[in-house]
Amino acid sequence: MHVIEFETTLGPTIVTGDEQGLAGVWFTDQRHFTGIQDTWIYQKTELLNAAKQQLLAYFAGELQTFDLPLAPQGTEFQERVWQALQGIEYGVTCSYGDIAHQINQPKAVRAVGAAVGKNPLSIIIPCHRVLGSQKQLTGYAGGLERKQWLLQWEQSHKLSTAGFVLV
Predict the structure, then answer these.
(1) Would residue 69 count as lying in a domain?
(2) pTM metric for this prediction
(3) Shared domain check, 82 and 40
(4) Got the DSSP string for 76-103?
(5) Which of 35, 78, 95, 134 would disulfide-bridge 115, Cβ 3.0–4.6 Å?
(6) Contact at 8 Å (CB) between 36 and 3?
(7) Is 54 found in the same domain as 111?
């Protein structure tokens, strides 16, 4: 596994990946981040450089959709949840219940919440766009302050075609 570390608007960020794809994007103080492993190699690969550039473009308000090969490791259930999260558009939110319904397990709201919390690809797989049933900010492994910032950032930078005439 290759790893790079760099500064973003929300703090020091770790990105990992291998020939399969991007495996992790974490803030260094994020819950569920186990720290840099002894077996990881600090090396700027093409994939990690692309991830860094796309994340920096996101934080500059220049990118709304990531285009990177992803290879998160989790249980089959977690991977289904993470796949569903990828369908949440920039600047849009949904609830944990919405995700549970989307994966055809409407009673698994708490399990969905746990899987969302263990998402290893923060921001790239947009777990920050998931809210509680009453649209309240709940749970974010990177901290609720970051979640709130990300949601406000996306709302203020969402590209819209409102007011434009498409020919």
Answers:
(1) no
(2) 0.89
(3) no
(4) HHHHHHHHHHTTSPTT--EEHHHHHHHT
(5) 78
(6) yes
(7) no
Q: Looking at the structure, do residues 98 and 125 belong to the same domain, yes or no? A: yes
DSSP track, 106-164: TT-HHHHHHHHHT-SBTTTS-GGGEE-TTS-----TT-HHHHHHHHHHHHHH----TTP
Q: Residue 164 pLDDT > 50, yes or no?
A: no
Residue 88, C-beta contacts closer than 8 angstroms, at least 6 positions apart: 94, 126, 129, 130
- In terms of domains, do 93 and 141 share one? yes
Q: Distances in Å between the alpha carbon of 64 and those of 75, 103, 165?
A: 28, 24, 22
Q: Is the dihedral of CA 82, 87, 91, 95 positive or negative?
A: negative
Q: How many domains does the chain have?
A: 2
Catalytic machinery residues? 127
Query: Would 165 be classed as within a structural domain?
Result: no
On whether both 87 and 150 belong to a single domain, the answer is yes
**Is 66 among the domain residues?**
no
Q: What are phi and psi of 68, to 5 degrees?
A: -140, 145
By residue count, the chain amounts to 167
- Above 90 in pLDDT, residue 133? no
Over 90: is that where the pLDDT of 113 sits?
Answer: yes
